Structures are given as C-alpha cells and as structure tokens.
Amino acid sequence: MKVCPVFKILNMSLLIFLYIFQGYCLQYFLGSFLECRIKSRWSSILVTIVYAVFKIIIFLVMPPGYENYKTAIGGVIISLGISAIISLGFYKGFRPVMIFLVVAFQAISDISRYSAVIPLSEAGGKWSDLLISWVEKGYITSLKTINVTVYGSIILQQIVQYFVIALLLYLPIKNIINNFRNKDFKISRTELMFLLTPAATGMMICILLRIIIVIVEDSVQKMLYEKYPVLIAVIPAILLLALLSILYGVKLFQDMICLHRERNGKIILEKQVDSLQEHMNEMERIYSGIRSMKHDMSNTIYVIQQLSVEKNNELQAYLGELNSNLKKLEIRYKTGNTVVDTLLNMKYHEAKEKLPDLEIDADKLLFPNDMKIHCYDIGVIIGNAVDNAIEACVKFKEKDESAEAFIRLGSVLKGNLLILKVENSFDGHLIKKSRNEFPETDKEDKKSHGIGLANIKITAEKYQGTMDFKVNGNMFILSVMMKNEKTKGEN
C-alpha cells in the first residue's frame, strides 16, 4: 500500500508536537529547581524550542530503529547531552541536583515512551488483523474505504499513543516537583547517589529493552512480546515500577530531610527551654531579692527622712533621690506570665546594649489568669520572636542610622483561642522563595540559623495552632494562634 503524503505530514506533525511538549516539560522541570540565566518571560519558550529543534535534527539524522544496539545507546547519550547542554547553558551554576534532573528526565521520557508504545502497538496490531479479516470476508470491498479505515485507525492510534506518552511524562515530573520541597537543599554525594540510582536503573532498563525487543526467527524480525505475549503486560509493569521507584525515592529523600530538620529543631527547642528555665529561675531569684531589698530600704529611708526633718536638708534630698532610684528597680514588663516577664526584661537589657534607642512596647501583651498553655512554650515563642525582631532592628539600623527601631508585642484572647502578635521594624528585604515556607537567613551558617520561625510553628502546633507572617513596608508582622488548652500529653 502506498503511503499517503497527508498521513506522513500528520505523523510528523504529531512527532514535532511531542518534542515541543517534551521541551516544555524539561524547562518546567529544570526551572522549578534552577535559576534561569535569562531574566525574561520568553526564556521558557526559548528552552522549549531549542530542545525540540535538537530532537527533530536527531530524528532526521538518526531515525529511531532497533537494528543496532550502538544506535540505542548512542541515542540515549545524545539525549542526555542535549538536556545537560540546556541545563548548563540556560540555568545558573552547576549543582549536584542538576545531574539528578537530567538523568531523571531522560529515564521518565524513555519509560513513558515504552510504557505507551508496547501495549498500544499490540492493540493496533489486533485492530489491523480485524480489518484484514473483514476484507477477506467481504465486509469491506471498496479500496477507498479500506484506505480511509486503515489510515484513520493508524492516525488515531498515533494520537492516543502520543497523548499517553505526554501524560506519563508530565505527571511524574509534576509529582517530583511537588514532593521535592527543599529544592535549595545542598545534596551530598551519598544523597545524590541515593536519588540517582532509581533514575539510572530505569534508564538502563529502557536501553536493555530496546536492545532485546527485536528477535529474529526463521530469518524474520519480530518483536519479543509477539513470541511471548505475557510480556505485553510484564514489560509495562516493570517500567511503571521503575518509574514509581524514582517518585518514591524522591519522597523518601524529602521525608528524611524533614525528619532530620525536625530532630535538629527539637534538640534546639529543648535547649532553649532548658536555658529559658535556668534564666527564669535565676532572674526570679534576683527579682525576689530586689523586691525584698526595695521594701526594706524604702522603710529604712522613710524612717531616716523623718528623723532628719529640719535638721539636714542635704541628707533629706540625698535620701529622696535614693528612694526614687529604688522605684526604678520595678520590673518593667508585667504581662501576667512570670516567664514572659522575666524573658522580656532580660531581652530588654540585652537589646539596649546593642540599640540604646530601641523601643520595646509590650503594654498590649497580656495573659489570662486561667492560662492553660505551658509557660515555657509561651516563652519559646516570645523568645524566638523577640530574638528575630532584635536582629532585624540591628540590621536595619546598620543600614540606616536614622531609622526608627521598634518592637511591639500584643495578645488577644477570643474564646479559647490565644492570638499573639509581634511587630518590628526591618529593612524591608525578605529573602523568601515561593517554594520555601519560611524566609531564608542571610547568615552563612544556614543550618544553625534561620530556624526561629520553624520552632515557633512547631510549638504552636502542639496546641492545634499555626503561625503566619506578613510584610507591610518596613514592618514585619508575626502572628501566632493557639488554643488555650493543655497538650494531649498533659491531659
């Protein structure tokens, strides 16, 4: 049967569309992890077109076939090279994750193609056999009808095949992007091997499959699954399992990162609680002594003043000044929570050494008498929030000496819901990436710093609460909501 020119055009158009879609998936995959060199909305289109052009050129120069195993291996190497060149040429900096992205994309592309082609080609073969039997039985007699039916069925098969390939390519890539939450995490060599192994295995399975898929029997080439029909189900199953191993490998890797960070956060949180308890006990002892001394000294000064009336005016003035100084020893902050009072007074004196003109207002920070949230948990939240706020104010003043440095704390109790709010001035520059939950610290030691908000959130979640933040010009606003209830362990 002579091949219809329209059929060849349609087939080539579908192939070009598939290459364009693969290019789109590649730029979507790489762009979710890497920063593009070209700051333009056209950058993604450019990457897509470059990839598609490369693939079309390779198709024209080296059409797909199963005759030579060297062709199979060469095709995979060239495809990997194209993805690598695009990654290095269009995206900034070489990172270990780039290797994983290139290999994983190639593996998913190959798996999607073979998973769709083998069962759908066999289904198309069955349909062709059915058409031939209809012709032999005389159900179809017109040559035109035969041509329309054959070409129509082949085109429909191609459309379905390319659609399934595109679907099996896009969905796993989207799954990896969604599950790979810590995209800026610095991957070690061991972690890279952990991620690469499933992807490389899937790619090798596809290379092996292409080499052995064609067999020669009685000097006639045929597909391996034609001799062993069970392979029509087994091969796609193996390929899909290889694909799942890539997806679950990424998910397991991210779960390990989250678990590691939670453990580190918990250790630091426990240290903060222990340190807070020690500070509270020490400060409570000091303040108790000061209150006792103040009470005794006030009474003593009063008696001396009465005895010195009209006898020594200088002595009386001196004693009056001493009494007024004693009044300054009153605790500055009184929120109704001993831990918070102690903590705020301690943070106030620490902050004043760094920023003498810093204003810390906690008049609206009040706690009810029937407080069920553990005082140390409140201390952890306030402590982390104030530490972050002081650091932000110091940084702000270093950039602009005339800037107003302030920290304002407040609380509201609505039913059994306690809402804490901390506002502070800052330079307005927030290092926040859309894929990360919290702002990034600008310190070099990112593992030891930048976890204050994470600790606040962990503590709030103990009381079925949450944490949120927003920026209003040069003001950072932190809100923490918790139920005024005991934790399950305390209950």
Description:
The strands form two sheets. This protein has a five-stranded mixed sheet. A two-stranded antiparallel ribbon has the order 1-2. It is elongated and about 135 Å long. The protein has 491 residues and is α+β, with helices and mostly antiparallel strands. It has twelve helices and seven strands. It has two domains: 5-265, no CATH class; 332-491, Histidine kinase-like ATPase, C-terminal domain (Heat Shock Protein 90), CATH 3.30.565. Helix 4 packs antiparallel against helix 5 (143-179) and helix 10 (338-354) packs parallel to helix 11 (375-399). A hairpin with a 2-residue loop joins strand 4 and strand 5 (417-425). The protein starts with a helix and ends in an 8-residue tail after the last strand. It has helices spanning 5-31, 43-61, 69-90, 96-136, 143-179, 189-212, 224-227, 231-307, 313-327, 338-354, 375-399, 452-461; strands at 214-217, 220-223, 359-364, 406-414, 417-425, 466-472, 475-483. Residues 444-449 have low confidence and may be disordered.
